[in-house]
Amino acid sequence: MREKAEYVVKLTGDVFNGYKVEEKIWQGATSTVYRCSGNGRYGNIVAIKVLHPYRNQPSQIQQFIREAKIQAGLRHNNIVKVYGIGRKEHLVAIFMEYVNGVSLRMASQTINIPAGTLIRLFIDLAETVDYIHKRGIIHNDIKPENIIIGKALNILKLTDFGYAEKLSRWFGRKNFYRGGTEGYMAPERTRGISDKRSDIYSIGVLLDEFLKDKLEGREDIYSIIVKATHQDPFKRYQSAAELKFDLETLYLDYQEKFS
């Protein structure tokens, strides 16, 4: 496996569909993301997400392409734009918007993000998730690594729709892929069950991890987290819009007291 991972890294300096691969941005279990430059059809600077070459089973490639199609169909300022699919010999890549930022995980480890800024970013996340839900999509893998924060802390971008699924006709139960990230998955996900409220649970976990301590002693943030992460989906927020409303109320009160 180590040799295969090293092979992917050697893309730096190569040309991929008219773009020079400048640097590796991120590497995960299934793919590697690079920043590229050139004069191609997608602009001067793009990011490419390259499926690891050892993931060459037809089902793995189909799921990768399916991810690109789902994300490409979403048009929102807080979702990383997908431009198309590219191929280079046996490699498959998703061409997408390059965001000058880092993951929420890395940002939190290197920057002391003010509480007010974090609340505002989570409002944006809730609004973005509400957008994808209204278009019949569940993300299924909302976690710090899939949220990019602009270096000026002025924008949030949701990415990686690898486990995304279309909502069932009924707002209830439907079997989905079991993929996801332990610790951010709603309890029903372990049974292969998911709906809008599963994404809401993941946002609640993020609020607990990144915001609760910065607002220590405030009952409103505790009540939001408890409701978002309730074990029973029917006792959670029933839409991301409801969660957004409570976060906006929290933000206004916070600004009033600390601005």
Protein described:
- The protein has 259 residues and is an alpha+beta fold.
- 36% of the residues lie in helices and 22% in strands.
- It is globular, with a radius of gyration of 19 Å.
- It folds into 2 domains: 2-97, Phosphorylase Kinase, domain 1; 101-258, Transferase(Phosphotransferase) domain 1 (Transferase(Phosphotransferase), domain 1).
- Strand 9 (147-150) and strand 10 (156-158) form a beta hairpin.
- A 6-stranded antiparallel beta sheet has the order 1-2-3-4-6-5. The chain has a 3-stranded antiparallel beta sheet with strand order 7-9-10.
- Mean pLDDT is 90; it is low at 1-9 and 169-177.
- Helix 4 (115-134) runs antiparallel to helix 7 (240-258).
- It has helices at residues 2-9, 58-72, 104-110, 115-134, 196-210, 219-228, 240-258, and strands spanning 15-16, 19-27, 31-40, 43-51, 82-88, 91-97, 101-103, 137-138, 147-150, 156-158, 165-166.
Question: Keywords, please?
Answer:
2 domains, Transferase(Phosphotransferase), domain 1, disordered N terminus, alpha+beta, six-stranded antiparallel beta sheet, single chain, Phosphorylase Kinase, domain 1, 259 residues, globular, 7 helices
Class of the largest domain, according to the CATH hierarchy? Mainly Alpha
Largest sheet: 6 strands, antiparallel
Number of helices: 7
Mean pLDDT: 90
Q: What is the CA-based Rg, rounded?
A: 19 Å
Compute the number of structural domains.
2
Major β-sheet strand ordering: 1-2-3-4-6-5
Task: Give the tally of β-strands.
Answer: 11
- Specify the CATH architecture of the largest domain: Orthogonal Bundle
Which regions have little confidence, pLDDT < 50, spanning 5+ residues?
1-9, 169-177
The rough form would be described as: globular
Alpha carbon gap, first and last residue: 52 Å
Topology-level CATH name of the largest domain:
Transferase(Phosphotransferase), domain 1
CATH superfamily of the largest domain: Transferase(Phosphotransferase) domain 1
Strand content: 15-25%
Helix content: 25-40%
Helix-strand topology string: HEEEEHEEEHHEEEEHHH
Structural class: alpha+beta
